[in-house]
Amino acid sequence: MLQLKANTSSPTLVFNGLKTGQLLTQLTQKDGQVSTLALYKGHNRLHLTDKISIWTTIKLFVTLGITHILTGIDHLMFVAGLLLFTRDFKTFLKAITCFTLAHSITLSLSALNLVHIPEPPVETGIALSILFLCYELTRPYDKQHPTLSRKFPWLISFSFGLLHGLGFASALKEVGLSQTSIPLALACFNIGVEIGQLIFLSFLIVLLKLCAKVPVFHHQLFQKVPSYTMGIMASFWFIQRAYIMFHIL
To answer: Model pTM?
Structure first.
């Protein structure tokens, strides 16, 4: 931690050797207000200022939201499973909308410290949500007697979306919300998450359309590969996270 004298006005920090990646810095004022600054790839000078511009806040938290969702393989895996689980685009649109609404609610409540749930149970629950979805994907589809998940996929996506929102919030808390612009920072992070989600879904839909044109992928064996692959990974995460949870709590 670097402490600066109160009469130091807008100092500039120079970081040598920072060629890749992104550096996040928390600036705590004497009155306790916290601001988050970012140093992006290709830059090595960080200008500490008392007032953070609105554009800086928007750019920082939208970028963080996009980065978090695109590097969060468990969240992406749930979205992919949801796309495979729903049988038509209209149903998927309803399900993904409910998922977005749910994780936006818990992200906001948790980031504002209105709801607090320890991270280990949340991460374990996220792994379980993927495992549940994979189990439903492998079950035979009976049009006459559909399961509750098949009848109301939006209910499943909303319920598990609440869990995933808590996962997003834990990442946001690690960075720290700018105390002077909490609503803006929170909204921008959420927008970033949605942009990243749309990027991933666009890529996945194009990939599925390309695979649909290849006859070999129509075989039932290949259609089950994604479900079992995700199920194996989710099982590993669930066991690993459950072990950590019971040894920490």
So the answer is: 0.78
